[in-house]
Amino acid sequence: MNIRQAVFGANPRRTTVRIVVLIVVSIVTFTWLLVPIRTSGISMQPTYESGSLNFASRMTYATRSPRRGEVVAIRMAGARVLLIKRIVGLPGERVEIRDGVVHIDGAPLPEPYVRLKRAWNVEEVELGYQEYFVIGDNRSMRERDHDFGRVDRSRILGRLLF
Amino acid sequence: MAAPSRRIIAAAAAAVVVFLAWMFWWRSDERAIRRELANLAADANAPAGDGLGTVSWAAQLGTYFTEDVVVAITPETTPMTGRHSIVGMATRFRPRFAAHTVALDDVTVQQRAERGIADVRVTMTLTPSAGGSREPIDARELALEMKKDGGRWRISRVTGVDVLR
Asked: What is the distance between the alpha carbons of residues A88 and A109, in angstroms, rounded to a whole number?
């Protein structure tokens, strides 16, 4: 068996085609369909522990708008470093946090995914046409240590798969 | 036998053309800007030692900024102006710098019509360089204005971008 056979097998052409297809499928999948994510930080506990692995689907919002309760990946300057947050407010809604309870248009929002919470207070804001209100699940943190607020639709990269 | 040889030659020629095109693009101003930012992160993370070592390290960081640089990370804080402020701040906070690793990711470069000025977006992350945790403790998007100054791209303005408002 020569080196060429050892590397490319009995049918080099088929092997080459397989390698090319695999590379193309990988590039397409991880560039336009799924973004691999390793969670870092505690702001989404207990839903996502720091260090957990996940994928964000970039296709979910190609056909529909983001919905309340969905966990989304939010891009900063690019797709390498992302914020992971949950959508609680939708475009046009008024969002307020009173004693740790999120209120949408004046009504308290049930949030079963929040286990511990502090008495955060955030003045009411009205969301714009393309704005969503996002927040992490860990409300036991101090308010000033937790990044949350309004985000433009254009920054929402995709929905976390699981 | 002739046909496969021609195909191989054609593939090799195409690869050379792609390589040359890539080299041409990569030698552009954009490449120079990316290299400056990569070097800035590397120098910020470099060990400095004490005393003169710290001063020399801070002065080296200062060379990445223009003389009249303005740094306004958050709207609440007073902007820092001038290269000397950057050097002074770096010297003062050297122990904090040493405890963290700075990374500049997701660099996007947009050249202005005005020659020698570029708008750059970048995500800066800070990761503890010692201790158990190796996870970023802060990530922030920055908008940079860079100017070609003395043949080198330097940062003339740094503004924090509020991803969540």
From this structure: 8
Q: What is the pLDDT of residue A114?
A: 93
Chain B CB within 8 Å of residue A147 CB: yes
Asked if B129 and B73 touch (Cβ cutoff 8 Å), the reply is no
The answer to whether A90 and A127 have CB atoms below 8 angstroms apart is: yes
pTM for the full predicted model: 0.84
A-B CB pairs within 8 A amount to 59
Residue type (1 letter), A30:
F
CA distance B102 to A40: 16
Q: What does the pLDDT look like over A5-45, one tens digit per residue?
A: 777 777 888 888 999 999 999 999 988 899 999 888 889 99
Residues of chain B whose beta carbon is less than 8 angstroms from a beta carbon of chain A are: 105-108, 121-123, 125, 135-137, 139-142, 161-165
Phi, psi of B16 (to 5 degrees): -65, -45
B149 DSSP β-pair partners = B152
Q: Quickly tell me which residue has 């009173």 as its tokens.
A: A98
Whether the CB-CB separation of B112 and B119 falls below 8 Å is answered with yes
- Record the tokens describing residue B32, joined without a space: 């120079």
pLDDT band at B28 (very low <50, low <70, confident <90, very high): confident
CB atoms B163 and A148 under 8 Å? no
